[in-house]
Design brief:
Layout (H helix, E strand, L loop, with lengths): L10 H31 L3 H23 L5 H25 L3 E8 L4 H9 L4 E8 L2 E11 L3 H11 L4 E7 L13 H16 L1
Antiparallel strand pairs: 1-3, 1-4, 2-3
Helix pairs in contact: 1-2, 1-3
């Protein structure tokens, strides 16, 4: 009796189970597609190719089901809804996993010695250049970090030089040099206030 619910002749199959399958399949293939584009933009060829294989495979399976039920309006709703949801999920996955590396460029008029010393103490390759901005002398700081550590690096910049201007660019290839490690906000606080606690003892 229960097995009859999963045959193509039932309303439950045609108007619920199959649209649900299409919806989930679209979420999966569009998420993979969004993530694949991120891999391509960062030069990760093998990962992009592997994602592309599974993306197209899932898309073909879902599309073949659509063509067998062209008179079912729920299939179109599920297909479009899965596409929209998959786009959002793909962007979220890309933010969480955050593959690749980025170049962080910081321009500050404020004395940046403390920020530079801290970045270097965290084994982050840091290059500084003295330059002239529109309102006078500035310091330009370049550092390369893994994308998953970017938020902590930005937090570091804001703590030491809250009015600094900074920009971020994707980097496709790095040879030699140092790729920055994670900079945790708690380590920033200890770097600033730890010596005071030690002196008070």
């Amino acid at each position: 009796m229960l097995s009859n619910f999963f045959t193509q002749d039932t309303i439950i199959y045609s108007w619920f189970l199959l649209p649900l399958f299409i919806f989930v399949a679209r979420i999966m293939d569009v998420s993979l597609g969004t993530f694949r584009l991120a891999m391509i933009s960062r030069g990760l060829k093998r990962k992009a190719a592997l994602l592309g294989f599974f993306e197209l495979l899932i898309w073909l399976i879902a599309t073949s089901r659509i063509f067998h039920h062209l008179d079912n309006v729920m299939m179109y709703v599920a297909y479009a809804g899965g596409f929209a949801t998959g786009t959002w999920m793909g962007m979220r996955i890309e933010e969480v996993i955050s593959p690749g590396i980025v170049l962080v460029r910081v321009i500050t008029r404020q004395e940046a010695g403390e920020l530079i010393d801290y970045l270097r103490s965290c084994k982050m390759g840091t290059t500084t250049v003295d330059a002239i901005g529109q309102q006078g002398p500035v310091k330009i700081i370049f550092t390369i970090v893994k994308r998953q550590h970017l938020s902590n690096v930005i937090d570091t910049i804001n703590r030491f030089n809250p009015r600094a201007f900074y920009s971020i660019e994707d980097v496709r290839f790095v040879k030699e040099g140092f790729v920055g490690k994670n900079v945790h906000p708690l380590s920033i606080a200890w770097k600033r206030w730890g010596p005071l606690f030690r002196k008070s003892k």
